Amino acid sequence: MYKQIIRPLLFLLDPEKVHNLLAAGLKTYKHFPWLRKLIRAKYQQTNTSFRWGDKNITCKIGLSAGFDKTGEIFDELSDFGFGFIEIGTITPAPQQGNPAPRIFRLPKYDSLISRTGFNNPGMEKLNGYLQRTSRNYLLGININKNPESTGDAAVNDILSLYKTLSPKANYFTINLPAPDDETFIRILREMDIYRSTLVESCPVLLKLPADLPEDSIHKVAGLIREFHINGAIATGPTTDRSHIQNYTAAELAAYGAGGISGKGIGDKSRRIVKQLRTSLGKDFLIIGAGGVMTPDDALDMQAAGANLIQIYSAFIFSGPSVVKQMSQVL
Fold first, then answer.
1. pLDDT tens, 81-104?
2. pLDDT averaged over the chain?
3. What are the residues whose beta carbons fall under 8 Å from the beta carbon of 248, sequence distance 6 or more?
4. How far apart are CA 171 and CA 32, in angstroms?
5. Which range has the worst mean pLDDT, 31-40, 133-142, 166-175, 288-297?
6. Sheet architecture: strand order including 103-106
7. Domain tally, the chain
8. Judging by beta carbons within 10 Å of its beta carbon (0-12, 13-18, 19+), is residue 180 exposed, middle or buried?
9. pLDDT-derived band of residue 46, with 50, 70 and 90 as boundaries?
10. Which single residue of 70, 86, 121, 286 could bond 125 by disulfide (Cβ 3.0 to 4.6 Å)?
11. H helix count then E strand count, the chain
12. What is the CATH number of the domain that holds 238?
């Protein structure tokens, strides 16, 4: 029903407007416990649980950062069966992001073009939204420095986010700009030093870009080992549009700049997952993300070496049932 009726109606509207309507609907939905019980009964299941350290993940499918940037609807989204949900990206100060329109659908190839920027409410407001509570899913927070921060300010931004939000998160994700970025290496070093002083620290994951050169994987693996990173997510969007089919170069150019997610990523993420697994061994946590649109894609990502799967575009193009469909084959 989603693909035949609901999606065509939603796709008549601007993507960001649809997203805002969905968020408003979920904020209302949370006040109807009987409805939430019905939705959970329909979508939630635990046949693909995975153990990560002392954490039990009830479903191997998670929701990527970017869907709930404000941290206001993640608990409601968990009703659709996700085993882990990542919110953000969150920066210390509130950000407006780039001017709209900034999200574009490519329905003829199940892909998205996005240039939203870091639009988010900022650390203080997010901290007010979050409650330290028992959950049947893991909550991750994707964090980044303020866009204008450099040097010491950038390091302090990340440390401030980590220290403030740690009590309410199950893990943090930091986006890798480049494996030889000096400021980023400083951030990892200072965070490692701070985490080493704690009796129990919140895990940190590294999210890799889809366009990471193949010969950089060993550098990334070195950073992961040196700074005791707990896991990797491969990958974020790509700027390469060569994998997109059913659109001309002129049609794609008309959308302007932006990262590609969904089917248009091609096999970039899967190849990076495979390389990471070879470099880091069988015990390291790898989350496969990017281009996972179908249950077969999820199986291929698992075969490449991913322990868990993270989706975003598939949730938009296939609807909430895709979570259960993917989890049932893993």
1. 999 999 999 999 999 999 999 999
2. 95
3. none
4. 29
5. 133-142
6. 103-106, 111-114, 259-262
7. 1
8. exposed
9. low
10. 121
11. 13, 13
12. 3.20.20.70
Pairing of strands 259-262, 204-208: unpaired
Tokens for 92? 């210390």
DSSP 162-205: HHHHGGG-SEEEEE-S-TT-HHHHHHHHHHHHHHHTSSS---EE
pLDDT tens track for 238-267: 999 999 999 999 999 999 999 999 999 999
Q: Of all helices (H) and strands (E), which one includes residue 50?
A: strand 50-52
Domain membership of residue 130 as a residue range: 2-327
Q: What is the mean pLDDT of residues 111-121?
A: 96
Cβ contacts of residue 129 below 8 Å, gap of 6+?
70, 71, 72, 121
DSSP string, 79-91: GG--SEEEEEEE-
pTM here is: 0.96
Sign (positive/negative) of CA torsion 244, 248, 250, 252? negative
